[in-house]
Structure prediction request, 209 residues.
Amino acid sequence: MRKILIPAAALIAIAGGSVLIAQAPTAAPGSKDATKVTGGTYTIDGGHTQIVFAYDHMGFTNNMGVIAMPTGTLTLDPKAPAAAKVSVDIPVANLKTGVPKLDEHLMKPDFFDSAKFPTAKFVSTGVKPEGATGAEITGNLTIKGVTKPVTLDAEFYGAGKAPAMMGGKENVGFVATGTIKRSDFGMGYGVPMVGDAIELKIIAGFVKQ
Prediction:
């Protein structure tokens, strides 16, 4: 006997119900068009912002992890990009490597000591535009109660207005990269067998308020 597949919408209709089928959008609402960026205050879209880190493990592998759901704000004016300011609070407990025992160790005093220092923080101190869509961002990074200056290379990723069913607000996104030394922040456990240099890739989404 040949199997007949009936769409869910048809089953609802057969049962006497009704269904509203939304037409799929013809294109993504965001694009790499920098003219879509408007000035104002934005808050971090925690569900679409990730801090990815990578490190050398004994010269054998380049391992990585991610911290998700940060909070913070961005203020910007496309006509004065150098005046932009960003502040980010990073919940250390959200760190995940995919290895439970390692995640547990990273929360201990050898590393983040999350019970005592649950939040890391980045506050920009300057923005230097580079080309049409890039910028060098300098700022202060605080981890485990230690504050050090860091530099990030940021690149505009996309902007536009979210669909109405997702709030309809303006969004803007960036990707930033940089490198820090974990020993600068009191996390020198295992150096040099495990690399001191931590490579960062930050996928940052913001929603206009």
About this structure: The first strand starts at residue 30 and ends at 31. The CA atoms of residues 81 and 129 lie 7 Å apart. Residues 1-15 have pLDDT under 50 and may be disordered. The domain at 8-208 is CATH 2.40.128.110 (Lipocalin).
